[in-house]
Amino acid sequence: MRTPPSLLSLTIDKAVIHLSHISDLSHLPDHILLDLFLRTLKAGKLNEKVLKLFVATGKDEVLLLIRALNIKHILTPVLPTNFNLAWAIRLRTFERNTCCFWTPNKLLDLDIVLPICKMSQEYIKNSEVDIVIGALQADLSSFLNEWRSIISRFHLIIVQDPDLKEELNIPEGFDLNVYTKSDIDRIVGSFGSTFFSGYSCRYFGYLISRKKYIISIDDDCFPAKDNMGNSIDAVAQHITNLTTPATPFFFNTLYDPFREGADFVRGYPFSLRSGVTSAMSCGLWLNLADYDAPTQALKSQLRNSRYVDAVITVPARALMPISGINIAFDREAMGPTLFPALKLSREGNFRWETMEDIWSGMCAKAVCDHLGLGVKSGLPYVWRKERGSAIDSLRKEWEGVKLMEEVVPFFQSVRLPQTATTAEDCVVEIAKTVKEQLGRVDPVFSRAAEAMVEWVKLWKKIGSGSSPGI
Amino acid sequence: MRTPPSLLSLTIDKAVIHLSHISDLSHLPDHILLDLFLRTLKAGKLNEKVLKLFVATGKDEVLLLIRALNIKHILTPVLPTNFNLAWAIRLRTFERNTCCFWTPNKLLDLDIVLPICKMSQEYIKNSEVDIVIGALQADLSSFLNEWRSIISRFHLIIVQDPDLKEELNIPEGFDLNVYTKSDIDRIVGSFGSTFFSGYSCRYFGYLISRKKYIISIDDDCFPAKDNMGNSIDAVAQHITNLTTPATPFFFNTLYDPFREGADFVRGYPFSLRSGVTSAMSCGLWLNLADYDAPTQALKSQLRNSRYVDAVITVPARALMPISGINIAFDREAMGPTLFPALKLSREGNFRWETMEDIWSGMCAKAVCDHLGLGVKSGLPYVWRKERGSAIDSLRKEWEGVKLMEEVVPFFQSVRLPQTATTAEDCVVEIAKTVKEQLGRVDPVFSRAAEAMVEWVKLWKKIGSGSSPGI
Q: What does the entry give for GO biological process (chains A, B) (predicted)?
């Protein structure tokens, strides 16, 4: 049998309903006042007048709770420059959940807030997203048809590998632009289309996009299914990852605290709970995972079947191998930070023969760490089909494996100057240090440093304008 | 229809079988030699003589592969001091998988090795583990009965909260020692049993254990089920976590590379693939998660139902909130690093009223980072039942939430001197710095620093000996 509510409890409930008629709460004992405040919040009855009433009591515990929940009087909000629909919705979502007042710029300024806001892609306009596909194979019909229900509402930028001579086979019903070698030559001119051969062709799409978000998936990947057999909307998940804050300065053991059903755990400092802007979302792979050629050659039967239902912010200063297979990023935040710079001498058209994304990813993580941006890893998965023979690649390409032994100590020690305040500055600074320190080790690094400087020039000329460069 | 094997392929297969009769391989073209080598490995035909045959060819690619796989001639192994059964088995497992030779001390020295070794608890003797339970409630019958099938083969140390006056109710059929207030007083003498009140009573168990591994689970937790409805053996998972290497210096996007079905991803440096000793395994919670009182009070319906099938090494220098609810550690590696030092003035008997584990965990992570040990988080989950009222606790305890705002910047900047080479040294150094820097902020930190120094003394006197201190 349920215990009947106490007289006190009923009185407090009654007080919540009639708060607007009460002019002074200061005579209430502390514990009743706190209870009244919590019930007011839960009942969605906190408005500006009621808040003033509680503040006027001057009671420590209530003031602390107000501060911890980042409840504020409405001010005319000074919107930050990157305030957008996502934040506006987050504001509303937050208000709906907590019925309290706050200024959105405080949320962005790392002030104290309980993360009740939940975001999903529906709040982002489809027109804010470009899906960039590098076409390494001519027949894209099965690829695009399998992705149709997920990507057809977005604009697609398809960049044909300049080395691929055949004409692309693209099914009807997509909003897309296709760029071929002649388009690349016409637009980048003297930079030459060799910059964009093989997997690097996608970077041409990154260069000419004018959208806030870019999502890019290799053309040998297909929509995956989760543990329940449901098809995964990788685009929606990437956008959720990018539009909810990241938490690089303290690890949350229950993974993404902004997901439905999760939160920050005990001990997580309140001042870090608002997080920072998510700049990159690195998705994963079921079936054929992104292993290197030696691993896959030695374990030829190895397939990834473990669906880990998590998104993690990779902590600041933790190094990681960012794969370009299934990736999304905030183009406005990342600027020219994703680039094709490190070319292996025997680079091929299979992922395990390339390092351009790993190198660019190491730079991107260093830039994000320096600028206080977040990088997430985990969901969404894509289903990666077989392509190529690891043993054949192993015969051909070993350089990448060896280079990482030099790359990692470099990035463990690299520090960017405080004067580097934009992604563009950071890339130029990294290029300079790479040339000085790694250039002595292997000429591939000098060439990478030069390509990074070239890339920033190209990006300034073509990529950074506000109107399409095409 | 399957393509029939080529004549070359058949020839290579034949050569694998007859390798022991071949005296020279140097005339073979590079690609055939490499193929032959890979097939020899896969067929388990690599022995010392055959290895010599391949090395004698002097071919770059084969030599590189031999190096990358850490294949070595058998030397009389110089065993490191912490070489134990786990490593011996890992050696055998590795050999079984790769049929090659290596010295175990090289694996510990971060030399190059492909992580083919898989470990599980069956290789650890049950006698190497103590399960430490702090009894905050007198009736342990349902707790122990629910855990019976998982923990009954291990030795249990049950420490009764000195503030708990009733006699414990413990069912039959366990190998255990119970310690009460009078035992604590007798053993720690002048240190006094107040050190060990409430949740801190478990630390008495950490002090007197002589086992290599300690596993500790709060007495309001029960075995959980995975997504398939199978009961989780939390002890087995903790031991697996502790006996497989950790990878704190580079983040592996496919989580624990040592798990069955997983590996290191492309771009992961080979020199870091052997990992480091795992010193701590921090498990998670289904149902009532380890949230703080404000979060749980505001989201009274919030329960954790997401089972994330992953174990992660928390990267070096990433700060984290280590919870003491469901934890395991290598006692030999951690020494006196887990201690009850930070006592809140209004600390209570509910987890959200305590900070002792969070504080000790911050210190432990700093020590592990300094000593090059790994901390893992994720599996296993336990099912945490309801206890206490978050709103009642919220009325009582706010100090912990406020302290974290001071604790985090401190640990972000703390650096231990190179002269601190043991866990013991590190704790003393941290205590010194806490006193100097945080002591000025709040006397609770000075008291914590003093308790840490006291704890190390106690640990030296009672805990660090090789025979039980009881």
A: cell wall organization; UDP-L-arabinose metabolic process
